[in-house]
Amino acid sequence: MTWSSDVAYLRGLDVMSDVVQRVPSDAWERPSPCAGWRALDVLGHVGTATEMGVRILRGGDLSFDPPDPPGEAVVGKPGEWWAKLAEDGRSSAQGVDLDREVESPRGTRTIREGLSFPAVDLFVHAWDIAAATGIDYEPPEVDEVVAFAHSVIDPIPSEMVRGGRVFGPELAAPAGADQWQALLAWSGRDPNWRAPAG
User: Fold this and answer.
1) DSSP code of 172?
2) Pair 184, 124: CB distance under 8 Å
3) DSSP assigned state of 149
4) Which of 25, 82, 134, 147 sits a CA distance of 20 to 30 A from 198?
5) What is d(CA 62, CA 53) in angstroms, rounded to the nearest whole number?
């Protein structure tokens, strides 16, 4: 049985938090698999999206003007900054009515729909940060993560998913890839990518 979007979102917050707390303090400036972004920029991107999600769930201001580069959103110590946002995300999403309609920058949508893609993003971007900073990472409950990701993305037309700031072109999975590595390749990432030394 595939996860509901709130369960996936809460699991994703936990996974991201685990990775963020393990990042060495001097590693946030390292390049990430996301072209032109440092590990700190990936965190800033995820954090601003999480903060927007909280505002949507709580009926707050819907204006959205993320900084460029995204890492400029991170204030103070990255781990502490993220921990506060993650806790706000958890408290807003726990026990939520998935069929309730809310206003978002993309118009009216159900909470079920609104949490789906951010949940996938949390798992994939946790890997981006881990790969950038030398952390070994594969999400727990990987079967459920992969099934949920495909349930969210497969129905969306390819031209809406590939390119821009969503996913890049799908890559061929390396020989012998497991299902998590295959998902990374499907999302346009090289599962063997690691930040250059130095």
Assistant:
1) P
2) yes
3) H
4) 82
5) 9
CA dihedral of 189, 65, 47, 58, whole degrees rounded to 10 = -130
pLDDT in tens, 1-35: 689 999 999 999 999 999 999 999 999 999 999 98
**Minimal CA–CA distance to 174: which of 152, 194, 190, 154?**
190
Q: How many CB atoms are closer than 10 A to CB 15?
A: 22
For the chain, give the longest Cα–Cα distance.
Answer: 49
Q: Are 111 and 8 in contact (CB under 8 A)?
A: no
Q: Domains (ranges, CATH) in the chain?
A: 5-146 (1.20.120.450)
Q: Where are the beta strands (DSSP E) in the chain?
A: 101-104, 107-110
Instruction: Give the helix/strand (H/E) hosting 121.
Output: helix 111-133
Other C-beta atoms closer than 10 Å to the C-beta of 60 total: 11
